[in-house]
Design goal:
mainly alpha; four-stranded antiparallel sheet; 4 strands; 65% helix; globular
């Protein structure tokens, strides 16, 4: 799979400007970063329940001199929204609050964190059985599609904002959001290609010579 002009994602490895990186450590690094994001989002709920007795007390409209606690609870970290939706859509709460008050977001953070922890364990310590990667594959695929749906739903407003006055704050908000969007799609592709590689490697229908060849890191071109 080719992304842009310099990134090729293949089953055993990913090539970035002719630099080959095995998918296994690359997927582990990506999973660790995304786990940090999901745990940060999960702790938003824990903090909100402990401090405010509310599953997710998110208020997007904060002042410039807001406290660290207020800023922490104003951002929807799980979708890389650091004020973008408030700026573009005029929302006063995080997107999740308009759906069900944040309960589904709470459950999602638990599920994604659990799936990524299992995936990291599988990637670093235990490549077999392959089904250890299934939760992360399902969660990441759904998550990336969800980000795509959110982006398409807000695209008119996003383009309208970009067509107007673009200051540094808006630039940073857009950069953070689209970084998260592309990062998770690339992570999903890498994770799937690594899974397909392991599936071929451990398949009983593949000859022993072929499995030996697949298990070796290919020589550089």
């Amino acid at each position: 799979m080719r992304l842009l002009w310099c990134v090729f994602i293949e089953e055993p490895h990913t090539r970035i400007c002719s630099l080959r990186i095995p998918n296994r450590p690359l997927a582990a690094i990506f999973a660790t970063f995304q786990l940090t994001v999901s745990l940060t989002s999960l702790f938003q709920h824990v903090f909100s329940i402990y401090k405010h007795r509310n599953v997710f007390l998110c208020r997007s409209g904060i002042s410039a001199n807001a406290s660290i606690e207020e800023k922490y609870m104003a951002y929807d970290v799980i979708i890389f929204d650091f004020g973008l939706m408030h700026r573009v859509l005029g929302t006063e709460e995080c997107v999740a609050n308009y759906l069900d008050g944040g309960y589904m977001r709470f459950g999602w953070c638990i599920e994604q964190s659990s799936a990524l922890i299992i995936a990291i364990f599988s990637l670093l310590c235990c490549p077999k059985p392959l089904w250890l990667l299934w939760p992360a594959l399902l969660i990441q695929s759904s998550y990336s599609l969800g980000l795509a749906v959110l982006t398409m739903a807000t695209a008119p407003k996003l383009l309208e904002a970009l067509g107007g006055r673009v200051d540094l704050a808006l630039t940073l908000m857009f950069s953070a959001y689209f970084f998260g969007f592309f990062f998770n799609w690339i992570f999903t592709f890498i994770l799937w290609h690594h899974y397909w590689h392991l599936e071929r490697l451990f398949s009983t229908t593949v000859p022993a010579e072929e499995r030996t060849r697949l298990s070796k890191f290919p020589e550089p071109l």
